[in-house]
Amino acid sequence: MSSLDKMLNKMKTDPINHSVPLPLVDEAFVVISSIGLTFTEKKIRIERLEQQAKGYELTCFSDVHESLIVTSSIDELSALNDSEQD
Hints:
By secondary structure, the protein is mostly helical.
């Protein structure tokens, strides 16, 4: 059985309904776009939302964390790195 066949079989036996709302993920993206919050505050709020997530919505939080990093400034990430080294 080829890799493609295995993927298709998995999709058929374990389908994910991509039309299901993901309110916690949506809220996390609102947090990311909040200008008045620091990187650390955003990270804490997102982690709290992630703790509430279950199933498919929980798996989506890897994208949320990646988006937080990508949208953060170098200064914010450097400050975070400096505080972790202290």
